[in-house]
Design goal:
- By secondary structure, this protein is α/β, with parallel strands linked by helices.
- It folds into 2 domains: 169 residues, NAD(P)-binding Rossmann-like Domain (Rossmann fold); 152 residues, Dihydrodipicolinate Reductase, domain 2 (2-Layer Sandwich).
- It contains 13 helices and 13 strands.
- Strands 4-3-2-1-5-6-7 form a 7-stranded mixed beta sheet, with helices on both faces.
- The protein is globular and about 65 Å long.
- The chain starts with a strand and ends with a helix.
- The relative contact order is 0.15.
C-alpha cells in the first residue's frame, strides 16, 4: 500500500515512525509493505514513488523545520488527485471555522478514489455527512478513529465489535487538558488560572487554551461520535457547550463537601447533545483524574461498556491511525485487492 501524509507535525511524524516500526507486521499479516510515497507540511512537499525513509523524514523535519525541500505552491489538491497512491493520512491541525485545509485534502482524495484516514476533527465536526457520502459514492473508506480520544478506541469498538448492540447513550470525558486542570484545582486547592498556567508549563495545555477550556474540542468530538455511532446528522454547532473557564475554587469545594468532583462531561442520548461541567460522585468511573479520556456506552445486551485511554500524544494518536490503516488493509485483502 502506498500512502501520503498530509501535515507533518506531531501526529504526522508519529505515524511515519509507526509505519517504519511496523513493516514486519504488514508483511506477515498482509504480504505487503506500507510505503510512504509522499508527505507535505504547510510550506514544503516531498515525494518518491519508490518510497521514502520515515526516519529521514522525521530527522529532516526536526533539523530544518520542514519535511521537504520543494515549496508548496498551491498545487496540493492536484497532487492528491493525480498522484499514484492508495491512502491519504490527513493530520493537519483542526480548524473549526471552515475545516480547511483538511476538508479540501480529504475531498480531493475521496473524489479520486483514494482511502482517507484522518485525525483532523474540523472536517468531520462540520461536514461529516458530506464526507461520508463522498466516500460511499467513490467506494473508498473514510476512517477517523484518531479524531476522538487518541488511543481510546471508541469509534471502532462501537461500529465493529458492538455492531450487534443497540447503543442508547454515551457519556464521557473527551478532553484531558480540562480533566487535568479540574483535578489540580481539587487536589491542591488551586484557582483556575494557576492550574491552567501549570498545565501550560507542563505542555498539557496550549499557549492559547481556548479550544480546550471553552469546550470546543470536546464539542467537536461529541458531534463526530453522534454521527458515527448514533447515525445523527449534526455538526459542532448543534452541540450545547459550556466550558470550564468559570469554574471557581468555591464550586470545587462545594462539590467536595458533597463527596463529588467536577468534570467536563459530554453526553449523547435521544434528547441531549451537550458538553458541560457536572458534579460526579467520587469513585464513579467518570471521576477519573489525570489527562485520561473515558467513554461509557449504555447498550441493550452488554449493559454499560467503559473505555479508557490517553486522549492525545504523538504515539497515542499514531496508534489510532495504525488501527485504521490495518482495517483498510484487512478490507482490501477480503476483497482480493
Amino acid at each position: 500500500m502506498k500512502v501520503v501524509i498530509a501535515g507533518f507535525g506531531t501526529v504526522g511524524q508519529g505515524i511515519a515512525e509507526v509505519i517504519g516500526m511496523r513493516q514486519e507486521l504488514f508483511s506477515k499479516s498482509f504480504g505487503q509493505q506500507v510505503k510512504i510515497v509522499g508527505a507535505f507540511d504547510s510550506s514544503t512537499i516531498v515525494k518518491n514513488a519508490r518510497g521514502l525513509d520515515p526516519v529521514e523524514l522525521v530527522r529532516r523535519k526536526a533539523s530544518t523545520g520542514t519535511v521537504g525541500t520543494r515549496k508548496v505552491d498551491g498545487g496540493v489538491k492536484e497532487l492528491i488527485e493525480e498522484y499514484d497512491f492508495d491512502t491519504l493520512i490527513e493530520t493537519t491541525p483542526t480548524n473549526i471555522l471552515d475545516a480547511e485545509p483538511g476538508y479540501t485534502h480529504i475531498m480531493a482524495a475521496l473524489g479520486s478514489g483514494k482511502n482517507v484516514i484522518t485525525s483532523n476533527k474540523g472536517p468531520l465536526a462540520l461536514r461529516f455527512r458530506e464526507l461520508s457520502k463522498a466516500a460511499a459514492r467513490n467506494k473508498v473508506q473514510l476512517r477517523y478513529e484518531a479524531s476522538v480520544g487518541g488511543a481510546m478506541p471508541v469509534i471502532n469498538l462501537s461500529r465493529e465489535l458492538l455492531r450487534g448492540e443497540e447503543i442508547f447513550s454515551l457519556r464521557g470525558i473527551l478532553n484531558g487538558t480540562c480533566n487535568f486542570i479540574l483535578n489540580r484545582m481539587k487536589d491542591e486547592g488551586l484557582p483556575f488560572e494557576q492550574a491552567l498556567r501549570e498545565a501550560q508549563e507542563m505542555g498539557i495545555a496550549e499557549r492559547d487554551p481556548s479550544y480546550d477550556i471553552d469546550g470546543v474540542d470536546s464539542a467537536c468530538k461529541l458531534a463526530i461520535l453522534a454521527n458515527a455511532i448514533f447515525g445523527k446528522d449534526v455538526t459542532y454547532n448543534d452541540v450545547i457547550r459550556t466550558g470550564i473557564r468559570n469554574i471557581t475554587e468555591d464550586a470545587i469545594a462545594l462539590a467536595g463537601e458533597q463527596n463529588k468532583v467536577i468534570r467536563l462531561i459530554g453526553e449523547i442520548n435521544k434528547d441531549r447533545l451537550e458538553v458541560s461541567p457536572r458534579m460526579v460522585p467520587n469513585g464513579h468511573p467518570l471521576a477519573i483524574g489525570g489527562t485520561l479520556n473515558i467513554v461509557q456506552l449504555l447498550t441493550d445486551l452488554a449493559g454499560e461498556v467503559t473505555v479508557v485511554g490517553r486522549g492525545a500524544g504523538r504515539m497515542e494518536t499514531a496508534s489510532a491511525i495504525l488501527s485504521d490503516l490495518l482495517a483498510i488493509l484487512s478490507e482490501d485483502r477480503a476483497k482480493g485487492r
